[in-house]
Design goal:
Low-confidence stretches: 1-5
Helix content: 10-25%
Order of helices and strands: HEEEHHE
Structural class: alpha+beta
Largest sheet: 2 strands, antiparallel
Number of helices: 3
């Protein structure tokens, strides 16, 4: 799959969405805590929603419990198949 150099050029039209066969939730989050320190964390399968909740709540103590981002790859379990 090609990657766009400028993400603003990516447009999810109904026609493009129709051809999507699978999707995946993000597995990395980068945030800046209350002290101004930037952190990148890994969100293992099934933790996207809770990590997002902690972020919205500025609950940096809970976010700090996630593993540090180290370039973890997606596994087949991470993909959500929308079409066969």
């Amino acid at each position: 799959m090609a990657r766009a150099a400028d993400k603003s050029s990516i447009v999810m039209t109904p026609e493009v969405a129709e051809n999507c066969k699978k999707s995946v939730r993000p597995n990395c989050m980068t945030y800046t805590d209350a002290e101004g320190t930037e952190h990148s964390i890994h969100m293992p399968t099934g933790t996207y929603e809770i990590a997002t909740k902690y972020f919205v709540e500025n609950n940096f103590e809970e976010l700090a419990k996630f593993p540090a981002w180290a370039g973890q790859k997606y596994t087949e379990a991470d993909y959500i198949v929308t079409k066969e």
